[in-house]
User: Fold these one by one.
Assistant:
Number 1:
Amino acid sequence: MHNKAGLLFREYMLVGGMPKAVSKYLESGKSFHAADVEKRDILVTYRNDIGKIASSYRTKVLSVFDQIPAFLSQHEKRVRLKSIEGGEGIDYEETFFWLSDSMIVNECFNSTDPNVGLSLNEDRTYIKCYLCDTGLLISHTFDESQLAEENLYLKILKNRLSVNKGMFFENAVAQCLTAGGHKLYYYNHYNETLHRNDMEIDFLISEGSKISGKLNAIEVKSSKNYTTTSLSAFLNRYGRKRIKNAYVIHPKSYQEANGIIYLPAYMSFCL
């Protein structure tokens, strides 16, 4: 059952949830290519809609929209707003908000002090940007010629093609959390001695109780071999007074160990 559910989750990531793409996929006898054609039409529609906005924003919005796969493929998926093609931070901040308000992307903000009221410690200098639908992200990531062959989709489905699966899994989890009503935050800690980030938590979400004021910390792992160094360090730093649950979302089955709950990716919607 676990293997079947995992396969269905990967199938969902490839097709996505856009109604026309799902309909074409089913009507064509589960042809990934037929669904891909529909998804590319949707992406063209997004670009056409962007082309209708004020000229002062148009170029910047298109630039960010086109770079979403590149942002997510980086080891550190966060984007420093002022670093985008030399643009001013405030301009690009508004650009991201336009894409979010249009329900094209899901934004994830940096929380500098993970505590009750995440928005009170929100740092908008850096932002992570996820596409609203993971199926669209896959079509947006690859050139049309790269995914023209049905076999390529099948290889991705069965984990037989070397691609950056991490960005797709993380995007799917962001999609699930957003659908569950969560505003997305992440956390990273910069080590002044090492001159690098030595701790990053993919997602922080409110536990839901204003009385307890606790958070849930989430790390996403796309492979079966991984470490939980950042999550363990985060728990040691802030403890259970702030953190209610620590989750690792991974391809393996459900388990609990050392104070961490390990969830298979297809259970992301339960959070």
Number 2:
Amino acid sequence: MSMTKGEMRRALRAALPGGEARDRESRMICAHITAWEPYRGARVVGGYMPLPWEADVTAVLQDALSRGKKLALPRCLADGQLRFHRVECLNELRRGAYGLMEPVENAPVVDTGTIDLLLVPLEGISSSGVRLGKGGGYYDRLLAACPALTLGAALSWQWTEDIPRERWDRPLHACADLGGIHIFCQ
């Protein structure tokens, strides 16, 4: 019997071996991302603030700011949508919906159509680029309408082949992990 998405999320989170392993893998993942040509050429980078069981992409966000890229981070809206806002300093962020660190409400809004590269959070990912999200559908709705190149960041224990794909799921274009950047055929 296959697992439900909720059971998969719990199992993948439980597989997290500890903060030190996460931090070590995250550093390597961030190095791959910041060396990747599509990232280096991106003028507008959409990102996210990671939760403790996700790859820590904070170094990529800091790198984007230091290179003068426009950094856009999301706010979760009550209607199930994400709105991206420009961030010029990660210290500007405040705890928002679901305990996530978010831009302040009055930060300039960034049209998602202008984002060149979008870092997408994940709970798990398959070798075909299907991602397991948190279950709220925020990113599913965003990915259906956002033309950006999408990139996940997967810790070694987040790879799985059993993610059921729903009709609204949009596979990612690529995913970074310890081995580098994996491009998915769409």
Number 3:
Amino acid sequence: MAEDIRITDLAKPSLTAAQQGARDYAETLHIELSQDSILAEARRVTGLTDFGPDDFQTRLAMLCEEWDGDPGLANLGRLSLRNKLVQHASSRLLIRDILQRHPEIHDVSIRAPIVVAGLPRSGTTHLLNLMAADSRLRALPLWESYEPVPRPGERLLDNGVDPRFQRCEDTWQMMQSLSPLLAAMHPMNPDHIHEELELMGPDFASYNYEWLCVSPRWRDHYYASDQTPHYQYMKTVLKILTWQDGDHTGEATRWVLKCPQHLEQLPVLDKTFPDAMVAVTHRDPVSVIQSAITMLAYGQRINRRQVDLKGLLDYWTDRVMHLLQACVSDRDAVPPERSIDVLFHQFMDDDVGTVEKIYERTSLPVTHAARSQLRAFVDAHPRGKEGRVVYDLRGDFGVEPSVLREKFAFYFQRFPVAIEVQ
């Protein structure tokens, strides 16, 4: 039986010794959030200098300026953000280098991917990881999403482990020591299947940065920008990964992908992958919001000087609203023969059966081997394996679920989503 987890100190956290120690140590450091210092460190890490087209620098500078000017960020939060930007800049150098040395990668095809789109916390992660258990499909593990291209001259460690995997594992262990309840809300172990959105990071694009730090200036820039070039960049990185697997045409590889951002970019997604099968998940947005902001509030105890519960509620209510308005408006951008709507409550009742329906729509046979792999994954990953977080939107954030739900009447009118939080 999964243990119930109730976080009772969201507003006024009681820090563990490890959390307080990490915060205290970080406060002794000078953390430079500047474009020049980040690019310089990426050059040092990789030994490379060519970042390719420099349009990304405007976006990098915007992130640095917004985050550097945030007085609420603790130094530990600044360090985490800087590390992420250095990681993206380093990957950009490596991606540019391999494409310059092997231009034939551009000719690799990304053939009929299966793409999951849906609100965060709406079952997209479970659906993706479940389909990734099917050995016929290629998925993106977290460690590879962070570092899609190896560093020059780097070899497997003595124990046979890829250094990129080890760096991701080291980060995960540190995260668990500082945020021990994270695994129950959103596992980030190295082999966990992750979002291809991460592959837009080296182009300094996507809404992912909003999850790392509340970033209204970045959000407004993202809203105002055509995301097509960044989706194309992500597709190019998928080609690199396919090529690195030894499939130099792409004909032997079929990807399974997912990202909540796709909900508000369905026309761009369809343009980028015109033969994709798109599964759109749907869940009560009140459940989504309470889950997301509880997770983010828990993370703020080490990343920010104070936890801003109202700020998180307001920001992510608006953000989920934008995602769903775009979904309602653009859902038909993906034709019915290449799309399917997945209701969260039905998926939870029969997850393997839901995958079989997706396969049927995309003409992927449900073989005995595939069904066995799917069921083996479900058996090995019961819901709430790491514990079950008990959420309290009313008690923690001071809002009545029914009142919040009224904002999303337009969504319930379009999709028969079950109400969860009363």
